[in-house]
Design brief:
Layout (H helix, E strand, L loop, with lengths): L4 H11 L7 H12 L4 H10 L6 H11 L3
């Protein structure tokens, strides 16, 4: 399953994810996504750079929003 960088960016803004990450880390997240990182890996990275969210919850949302 894949998710576009545009949708990933939208979700990060919508849910206020990645608020503890800096611009460089944000760019790396999008690069990893472009290079085909799994949704599980993306969820872990987002979770590490966020507060107030559960890693599994993030993964569930990514799976629901992924581009099939």
């Amino acid at each position: 399953m894949k998710i576009s960088n545009e949708k990933l960016y939208y979700l990060c803004n919508k849910y206020q994810w990645f608020t503890c990450g800096n611009n460089r880390q944000y760019e790396l997240l999008f690069k990893l996504n472009k290079d085909g990182a799994s949704l599980e890996k993306l969820a872990t990275i987002i979770w590490i750079c966020s507060t107030g969210y559960d890693e599994q919850y993030i993964l569930e949302i990514l799976k629901k929003e992924c581009d099939i």
